Each structure stands twice: as C-alpha cells, then as structure tokens.
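The passage that follows is intended for readers who have already worked through the single-chain material. We present the inputs for a multi-component assembly, then the predicted structure in tokenized form, and finally a short commentary. You are encouraged to pause after the input and sketch how you expect the pieces to fit together before reading on.
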Amino acid sequence: MRLICAGLLAVLVVGRAAPAVDLPGTTALRDKPIANAVVWLEAPLAPATKVEQNVVLDQRNLAFLPRVLAVRVGTTVGFPNNDRVFHDVFSFRDGKKFELGLYPVGTVKHVPFDRPGLSRIFCNIHPAMAAYILAVDTPYFAVSDREGRFTIAEIPAGAYTYHAWRPGGDTLTGSAAVHAGTSLDVKWP
Amino acid sequence: MNAVCARMTLASALLASAPASAQSVTMEVDVSGGVSTENVRAGAVQGRLFGASASDWRFFVEATFGGADGQRSDAFSASYPYDGRLRPMEIYGEKMFRPRNGLLGVRAGRYRTPFGLSLRGDHGYTGFTRAPLIRYGDRFALSTTSMEGGVSVIAGSPRLYAETSFGVPQDEGTLQRRHGLDFTVRVQGYYKSVIAGASHIDTGRDKSLGSFAAGRAAFNGIDGRWSSSGVQLRGEWISGHPFDAVATRGGYLDLIVHRVGMGPVTAVARIERLDYDAFVPAFSLYLHRFTAGARVRLPWCLSGQVNVMHQPTGLAAGRTNVLDAGLSCTVRR
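Having made your guess, compare it with the prediction:
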C-alpha cells in the first residue's frame, strides 16, 4: 500500500514538474519561410510510447507524397502504389537501404526504419520522383508546412537541444527552453 | 483524320479531367540526345503536364519532338518516334476507385495501347535504348508508340484484374494502323514477386502495306515480371498476324539488376527474337539480337545509357555489333 501511494505521489510530482506543452515555430531560409523542414528535440529519456504504424509514403500521380516524411525510429513505413503504372522504389545512399521491386496499383510494401538517419528515396523508373525519410530517435518532431510553420505536440516542459534539417541544407543545432507560450524560430543563413 | 481525332481526344480529355481548381499540377521536361555506331545521331525533347483535382480526377498531357539523322534504324526507338515532327503522345483523364478492396479505374483519351508491357516506363527508362524487335513499328507486329483514342477500364482487385480498351488507332511513329474500332483486353495477376499477364488485340492493319495486304491484325501475348532484391526478370512472347496469310511471333527476356551497393548504376541485358513468315518467302524476316548495357543516374538532372548490341543480320551496312550511347536530363517543376 505504501509502495502504491509512493508511486502515485511520484507520478503526480513528475506530472506537475513537467507539464506537456505544444511548441509552435517557424522555419525560414534567410527571411523566406520554407516548407518540408524537419525540427526535432533531443529526448534520450523520452518514454518509449507506441510508435505510430499507419505511416505511408504514397506513390500517387508520378510523385511521392509527402516529399519529406519524418518518423520516429522503429516506425514501419508503407509504400502504397496508387498509380496505374509501376514504380521501383529504392534507397541506396544513406540511412535505410532497400529496393522494393515492382508491384501493381492498389498494393503496398513496407519498410521498417529501425535506425536514425536520412534516407533518400527514388524511383528507378521515373527519374524525377524523389523524397526524403528522416528517422529520428525522439517522439518530439514535426515537419514545416507551406508557410514554414510547425508544431511539436505534447512536449514535457524543460530545456532541450533541437536539430533542424531541410532538403539540400545543413542540419542546424541549438537549444530551446520549452514552456507554455514559447515558440521556436529556426532560420538558415 | 488522325490529327483531327487527336485534337478531339485532347479536347475531350482536358474537358473531362481539368477541374475548376486543380489540387496539383506538375510540369516535367525530358531532353535527350544520343549517338550510335550504326551511324545514327538523335535528339528529342518531351514535355508533360500532369496532376489531379481535389476529387482525384487525374490528367496527363504529353508532347514530343524527336529527330534523327544518318542511317534508317531503330536506334533510340525505345518509346518515342524520332521523325522530326512535334506531336502529341498520351493525353488522357482518369479516375481510380477502390470499392471495398477491389479496383475499378476508367481512363478516357489517348493512351498507349494496353497490350502486354506497354507503358512508357516499361521501355523508355529501363536502360535499353531500343524497343524490342517485336515492338518496333515496321516489323509486322506491335509498336511501343501505338496509341488508342478511346476508353480503357480496369476492374478486379489489385491481385487480379482485367483491362479492356475500346477505341480507334491513333499511332505515332512507323506503324500507322488503319482506322476503325479496335479492341484490346489484358488480364494481369500478381502473386508474391511475380506479375503475369495475357493480352489480345484485334485491330486494323498497317496503312502503309499496300494492296497486297488484306484483313485485320490480331495478336495474342503473354508477359511476366519477377523482381526480388533488386533483380528483375521480365519478358513477353507475342504471336499473331499483321494481316491475312502471314504470321509474326517473337519475344524478349530482360534482366535488369539494380541492387543495394550498385549505387547509381542499373545493369541490363536482353535476348530476343522475331520471326515474320511472309507469303512470299523472300520477304520473310528472321532476326535475333543480344543486348547488354547500363543506365547511370548522374548528378543534377542527368542520366546516361550505354548499350552494346550483337545482331547477326538486319543491321545497317552489314554491321553485326553496335554501340548506342545516350544522355538525358529530366527536370520537374
């Protein structure tokens, strides 16, 4: 009984010490907002929550959708073919290396992303099809939208190291104090 | 007449597919050039516009201009004509439905004849610089640039479906079929790493054949693809008659290797044959060809292709060995 009470007390104390907040922010190249930038917070002690499994990189209308996909390490990504033509998806350069072969419209293949890193995704039949999958070892990440805005949801308040990556750019690193009402503006020079 | 049909098809496809406010529109341009030791130099540009509406009606519009000088040859014929004319290629609108776990799709407009391995990407970007013997226009069989103006419907499930096309021929390139309603049906199955299909076409004969030819063209074909761990085997066998009292049969087997560790290189090899039995034996044609080559993805927008071919008979100037090399740039906005 004492143990249970102590446990409940600990949960309450931790809960009060680190309330979860959302962290909104923006990404910009110089002063121009940019889409498809990934921002994530280092969180080595983050709880091993269940990884979302309904994550897809769609092949639709001769393109990958989305162009940039961020996932937590351990996520299995589906690659459905929603075109009447064949695609031959591969990633050879960095990150997860795979080659999916041919599969027809309406079918899907899956790839687990079990280590952090950037994977460059191409189609061997359609040379202009390209996408990125960034696997990060944290539950706290987001991809910026067309206006360069993002929100990282439900972060325990505290001090963090953040990283930010964009296609064709360097990875930025900095520190962020996260509490209610703060925001994070990331700018590439 | 063909041009009128093409314009009408273009208009109807655009009307059918272009929504008031498209959700996405992509423009793509391919520029390519090549040289062959068969004394051929060629260059081409293709422009494409494709996209989808908010309700996922999709459209695809493509035009090409290609030219070649030197010897008459099938060099660089993989999926476009090279005859110095600006021309429309595929122009269609389409919609896919997924009733329960089934598959239902309709395409209207101008599209490549859906017989066997017929897609642009089947022949144009795989590493081969030439169309298969059995799919080059002036060899009494089929062509990779054969087009239909009509309606194509696919129905079934992703594992097994049938595609049926009703239309009129709107060919580009060396094979120009006579007008009149034609019909193509194809059944495709998918199991594990294997995709297999069977096709039939009943269509008009080549307009250029003259008065000695009569009747319609009809062909049957089987095709298959197997792919695993970056190794792909695929092939077709096609048999039929381009007009009455003659027969054409032939096929090819391709090996395409693109494994982890090969980086930007795709290695290819092909073995193929074509037999055309004319009613005057002197006009019969029996060809076989071996091809080995590679496609390399280069920096920026570039990719290169090199093919070495051995063909004992039928090449220009009595040659038996030929090297083709091409360079392409693909840009998308």
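Commentary: Residues 2-17 of chain A form the longest helix (16 residues). Confidence is low (pLDDT under 50) at residues 3-16 of chain A. How closely did your sketch match?
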